[in-house]
Amino acid sequence: MASTRDRIIALFVANEDTYLSGQAISEQLNISRTAVWKQINILKKDGYQVDAIPNKGYRIISTPDKLSENTLQWGLDTKWLGKTIHHYPTIDSTQTKANALAYEGAPHGTIVVADKQEAGRGRMNRQWFSDNNQGIWLSIILRPSVLPFQAPQFTLLVGTILAEVLTKETDVAVKIKWPNDLFIGNYKVAGILTEMQAEQDTVHHLVVGIGINVNQTRTRFDTSIQTKATSLREATGTIYSRIILIQQILRSFEAEYENFIKQGFNPIKTKWEQRAYKLNEWVTYYTNNQKAEGKIKGIQEDGALLVERIDKQITALYSAEIDW
Ligand code: BTN
């Protein structure tokens, strides 16, 4: 459940151009007038400029919810993640930029974020639509001491983190569709792109790209994805603060990443499986053009998807085409 503070900010974001009376806020959020007044004072303290007109109500004149290095770092209590943030109003791709910065030696935990991407990239060189101010388009540079074969585990780690954070923030179940998609119901809401620069036994850097559809309405999606994609707003009817979401993701990311480095993959595997899309459901899949049926059972350490065949044999899939 989102906090009162988060809900009041979202309400103001949704009513950007109008005044909201204390009464209206109290009714919409189901809190007392005194609680509204207290929250407004906290917001003012936090850097929001609130205009208050008697008999009319409150309006936020300037909100720190615009993405910038400052607004993202404000209140961010991480130790190493997001200590350096590169923010661009428009960029080709945060992923391309983060890779370039990583080659130039950017430190572990550096973040590249944009309001709009003109050449956002998905897996398999697919286009990733990145509408202006409507979503989270973010890439994180990591320099873990791991072996190249462990790179897929980072996609699964990040999928677990996103599913947990987005479920908590929206109160709807966000599921992980192997290997790199986040789904609400049968619609894709987010995707992960993990890229790596490595030699045989050394990973030089990883760039984890995260794309989340946040505040788009269905008609704003490109027609090619309108029947397949959703946003947090479409799924819940609520407009979300991208800053709050990014900060929650970064906090959780740092903590879970540290656990992963200390404890290994097993705890992630358990959490991943708890949030897996279509767990224990039958799917049709194709390997080497061979059609087969299997029940989704989970993942294994190297990132493969485990399916149970009709004869109860467990098969590990690495790059199967799956009819979900
Ligand atoms: C996928 O679903 O195929 C992965 C999508 C990843 C999109 C993100 S948005 C931020 C970063 N920059 C990109 O160009 N791609 C990733």
From TrEMBL:
A GO molecular-function descriptor: transferase activity
Keyword hit for Transcription regulation: yes
Entry EC no(s): 6.3.4.15
Keywords recorded for this protein, A-Z: ATP-binding, Biotin, DNA-binding, Ligase, Nucleotide-binding, Repressor, Transcription, Transcription regulation
One of the Pfam families matching this protein, by short name: HTH_11
UniProt cross-references to SUPFAM superfamilies, sorted A to Z: Class II aaRS and biotin synthetases, Winged helix' DNA-binding domain
A GO CC term attached to the entry: cytoplasm
Transcription regulation found in the keyword field: yes
InterPro entries listed in its UniProt record: aa-tRNA-synth_II/BPL/LPL, Bifunct_BirA, Biotin_CoA_COase_ligase, BPL_C, BPL_LPL_catalytic, HTH_11, WH-like_DNA-bd_sf, WH_DNA-bd_sf
UniProt superkingdom: Bacteria
Chain positions recorded as biotin binding sites: Q117, R121, G122, R123, K188
Domain BPL/LPL catalytic: 70-261
Biological processes, Gene Ontology terms: protein lipoylation; regulation of DNA-templated transcription
Catalytic activity: biotin + L-lysyl-[protein] + ATP = N(6)-biotinyl-L-lysyl-[protein] + AMP + diphosphate + H(+)
DNA-binding span(s): 22-41
HAMAP family: Bifunct_BirA (MF_00978)
Recorded family membership: Belongs to the biotin--protein ligase family.
Known role: Acts both as a biotin--[acetyl-CoA-carboxylase] ligase and a repressor.
Protein name: Bifunctional ligase/repressor BirA
Source organism per UniProt: Paraliobacillus ryukyuensis
Lineage: Bacteria, Bacillati, Bacillota, Bacilli, Bacillales
Gene encoding the protein: birA
